[in-house]
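Researcher: I'm preparing a figure for a lab meeting and need a structural model of a single chain. I don't have an experimental structure, so a prediction will have to do for now. The sequence is pasted below. Please return the structure as tokens so I can convert it later.
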Amino acid sequence: MDAGSPALEDRELVEAVLARRPGAFELLVRRYERLCWHVIQRMVRHPEDTRELCQEALLRVHQCLHQYRHESPLKAWIAQVAWSVAKRHLERRRIPLAEAAIGEDGLAAAIEVADEADVEGERGEAEVGERLQQAIEALPPLQRTVLMLYHLEEVPIGEIAGITGLAEGTIKSHLFRSRQRLRETLEHCGVTGA
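Model: Understood. Here is the structure written out token by token.
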């Protein structure tokens, strides 16, 4: 069985896992572990915690798969499980999920890191990419994750709302503020056209 095989659609895969067919859950894990990793890593940003929380999320998927009703894509349902595991982890550690407004501390940290680079030198794609990554990492967990889901995983806004439990307008607002913040950071660093 191939993890990316369109022959085994999500509905069939869920049925195979629930029927305890050999290799079915392993296939589900191979198909969606990257998504779990991205959601959790963007939220918590600590490799050891991310690894442990991914295992917890996939275990929860296995334990609760019988509750999946095919009302949303399996990808969105699994992302919601990963989101809730990461969110609980942040709450236990008393780490704020989002900032009420664009926080000066995070922006200042991104600018300070970017200013350490040679801003007078030629701007290669790698340098711009590195600065963009630094600016993304300076975003609050919620904005980082929403940005990743929308742009990297190509999850529609409606599904992101379902994953996070936030209204679609709130998701759009977080996306707008995140992009605005990234643009400002890159412009401050002398990267134009961002």
